[in-house]
Amino acid sequence: MSFASLGLSEEIVRAVTERGYTEPTPIQAQAIPVILKGGDLLGGAQTGTGKTAGFTLPLLQRLMARPVAGKAHIRALVLTPTRELAAQVEESVREYGKYLPLKSMMMFGGVNINPQIKQLHGRVDILVATPGRLLDHLQQKTVDLSHVEILVLDEADRMLDMGFIRDIKRVLAVLPKQRQNLLFSATFSDEIKLLADGLLNNPALIEVARRNAANELIEQRVYPVDRERKRELLTHLIKEHNWFQVLVFTRTKHGANRLAEQLDKSGIPAMAIHGNKSQAARTRALAEFKTAKLQVLVATDIAARGIDISELPHVVNFELPNVPEDYVHRIGRTGRAGSNGEASSLVCIDEKKLLHDIERLIKREIPVVQVPGFEPDPSIKAEPILNGSNRGAGGRGQGQGRGQSAPRSAGGQPRTGGTPRTGGGKPAGGAGRGGVPSSAQHRSGGRGR
């Protein structure tokens, strides 16, 4: 099957071909015809399945098929949970639409709003935005959404996790009633189903992988190690196997900073990326990581959502996530587009239950690899992982790290106690799951995402 056979124009197919893609992925093959017909869509897709092109290509095609005379208005709106993902999606829109007369714009917080206002005075056909900053523009009456024909909610599960549901509903209230709605989510929780029921009109349902399934192309391993020796083992693995482009996950921002500094001192070029970093620092770190100038990128779950590298070879869970579904999201950064990938987890005695929950979710046992010289000390007792952190990143309890993941109760809901970072009114941009109990509190600290 070719992209041309799906009904896409010559201009779009040429742009896709120039990016090195010749055959559509399963979600593209299923989603593009549905979207081209104008119907609503509920898409279940893990990261790395080609989802972005799956909605971007037909969106461009539909806008070109119905040209509008007179003043140009915003005709398509794509909402994303993070600024990195917004930048990634808008870049795809520009690349795939390079031979079309359509103009796109990305909009997120953490940067000056005035250049965005100025850009909105010009032509914008497709707007890619994060909910908080879009609401800022709506309140200042600097953006007009009254002509939107297509709405895309990308990674809707993450938007709900981050407390954006009220923001989304406020945006929906100002959109035209007659429009095409596309909702994409890696998981279908009850909250997602509720949102879909209220938003979508007789949608087509597309799922390209078993729910919460890990990519079969990813080789998963568990390395048992004492909590105090995790950094030493990670350094050993990277140097011993000459790993490059290694994406390492920690639970907290503080842990990410500390680990990146320690790796750097060990002669392994590393940087941390999380919500407290400036947008310029995050952009620079991503650029250096993509070009392999940077050997290791240490990230928190939310910050990593916008990382789009077609052949990322290594993902390492320095600390296992509290929420099993996050493990699937994390390792889904590798093994993309048909390429193989490796996902390694450094697991101490404190994390045995987390590992069990992950294995139960993915319905398989993850192979254990014991590195000689790093055998766990059987006399060490398990300690509780308090507020989303253990002592693995540096030998002492780190606390939660403001706005980061709080442990979840048996029912899957965040436990209270996480304190959103207000930062004197500036966008934190990295409020994690559970650290933000409500949309209003989220916006006070992390609105600009």
UniProtKB/TrEMBL annotation:
GO cellular component, one term: cytosol
Occurrences of domain Helicase ATP-binding (ranges): 32-206
Gene of this entry: rhlE_1
Record-linked CDD domains: DEADc (cd00268), SF2_C_DEAD (cd18787)
UniProt-listed SMART domains: DEXDc, HELICc
Entry protein name: ATP-dependent RNA helicase RhlE
UniProt cross-references to Pfam families, sorted A to Z: DEAD (PF00270), Helicase_C (PF00271)
Entries under HAMAP family matching the protein: DEAD_helicase_RhlE
Comp. bias (Gly residues): 391-402, 420-435
Chain segments carrying region Disordered: 372-449
Boundaries of every Helicase C-terminal domain copy: 217-379
GO MF, any single term: RNA helicase activity
An annotated GO BP: ribosome assembly
EC number: 3.6.4.13
Keywords linked to the UniProt accession: ATP-binding, Cytoplasm, Helicase, Hydrolase, Nucleotide-binding
Domain DEAD-box RNA helicase Q stretches: 1-29
InterPro entries xref list: DEAD/DEAH_box_helicase_dom, DEAD/DEAH_RhlB, DEAD_box_RNA_helicase, DEAD_helicase_RhlE, Helicase_ATP-bd, Helicase_C-like, P-loop_NTPase, RNA-helicase_DEAD-box_CS
Bias kind Low complexity: ranges: 403-419
Native species: mine drainage metagenome
